[in-house]
Amino acid sequence: MDQSLDSGGVNGDRSSAGHCVKSEVIDEYKLDTQEDQRVKDAYSGLAQYQCDECNFKSVKKTDLLKHVNVTHKGMTYQKCHVCDYSTRHSSTLWKHINALHLGIKYKCDTCEFRTGYKSALKNHVDSIHFGIRHECDICGYKAPHKRAIKVHITNVHLRVKNNECTLCDFKTCHKSALKSHINSVHLGIKDNKCHICDYSASRKTLLKKHIEGVHLGTKNNKCHLCDFSTIYKSALKEHINGVHLAIKDNECPMCDYRTSQKPALRMHINSVHRGIKNHKCHMCDYSACQKSSLAEHINGVHLGIKNNKCHLCDYTTSHKDALKRHIDVIHLGIRKHKCPVCNYSTSLKDRLEQHINGSHLGEKKYKCGTCDFTTSHKNNMKKHIDCVHLKLRTQKCDLCDYSTTHRNRLEKHIDANHLVKEKL
Question: Are 390 and 384 in contact (CB under 8 A)?
């Protein structure tokens, strides 16, 4: 490390050093400054903190505090010549300049780790090379930093989340997490892009987890009750609560839909109640609110790829949930949605509603544009058009030239014509 820079940064002639810093690195960081201004402009409409003495507004509470201290109380702040960072302490400012703008790094003697801060180097050596961990007295959680334990206790055990989003109900105990949330969810800023696919994230850690889970297949958080695995601890917890413990705390305010996952509730509201389905199939008029659902549709309907196979029969599907319903209904006989008027039962709530509307209320909202056929089921309309008007018979018998549009009709045909019944 250049000791002259280090000593000049702390005890030397700071005004001349600051001028030198400005002249040397201002051009190099010009683009970054423009990018910071773009983000700043995007944040300008989100300002929530208003000064009581003037018209100043700020997104961050700390910026408002600095404004009050400098403008109305006459305090002085040390400002960075390259970016908009400022602090009341000169030593802190020069640590910032040395680390971020001059690239002065403290290097670990054991590995290639580098940092601009001595304290960060000490924490690295203690945690990585000496295995020193600070432990939570409540649950045994371990972390390399005392501050991380404090944040853990505040967040997990005390459930204190002081950083609130002003645009939605998101809360967190981390300022950085709130900033990432606003950038990704409300401003659409996702600068960390995957080099393999079109995935992008607001944080490097999320991108790293995406690459490990999706492209490398590394999913270290495994369920001890089934074969489910994930890269996220929170996703594993939601899986256990929702699937195995049947805990579904997130309720839809417009219907009785419940789920253990907040993102699932958000997608339900967008797709079912708001009709927002941004992922559209380029081969038909199908649309979905999830990219994964669109991929399953294309694989199953257009490419004929059905990787989910039933272990009890030859049924195959491209959807995991469809396979689960098949096993529940066909093999286990589970049909929890029952008609209050007749003995009809089904595994799907929407099918029960269609049954009641079509069979008991006489509501048949799907009308054929070619003839006067009507039905309460969208798939029945499709089958009608394929069979009657397009003459498409996709279910073919392997033993003769018989074909039909319905799988159950093909099974009845095989039972009646090709299976030899043994006489007792």
Answer: no
